[in-house]
UniProtKB/TrEMBL annotation:
One of its GO terms (molecular function) is deaminase activity. This is Endoribonuclease. It comes from Pseudidiomarina salinarum. GO terms for cellular component: cytosol. Belongs to the RutC family.
Length: 130
């Protein structure tokens, strides 16, 4: 199978040598999103909740560019600089997803690109066209 590179102006441009997402068959591998606003490439704010919401909006835009929707994500990896914000992540995630929820991991890290407080990457499985 060949790789299809996914790119959209509705999510922040890659800030390094990587693609926003790569599709192989019906599986889409989404690169990590941080809380950058696509038009300005600046953080939405310093507020953690605002940052989490922006990250999910960015993921949603990449999912849609790949031909799916956020609900099609099957696995999320959530990186936080403060695991104490875990409850806020749950609240925000519940605003963007409905059951069945994707599998996920939440990991505290020492630092994230550009000083972000949250980054999320994941895997999406597109609905079958059978």
């Amino acid at each position: 199978m060949s790789k299809v590179i996914i790119s959209t102006e509705n999510a922040p441009a890659a800030i390094g040598p990587y693609s926003q997402a790569v599709k192989v068959g019906t599986t889409v591998y989404l690169s990590g999103q941080i809380p950058l606003v696509p038009g300005t490439m600046e953080f939405i704010s310093d507020n953690f909740r605002d940052q989490a919401v922006q990250v999910f909006k960015n993921l949603k835009a990449v999912c849609e560019a790949a031909g799916g929707e956020l609900q099609d994500m099957i696995k999320l990896q959530i990186y936080l600089t403060d695991l104490g914000q875990f409850a806020v992540v749950n609240e925000v995630m519940a605003e963007f997803f409905r059951e069945p929820y994707p599998a996920r991991a939440a990991i505290e890290v020492k630092g994230l690109p550009k000083g972000a407080q949250i980054e999320i990457d994941g895997v999406m499985e597109l609905p079958s066209t059978d």
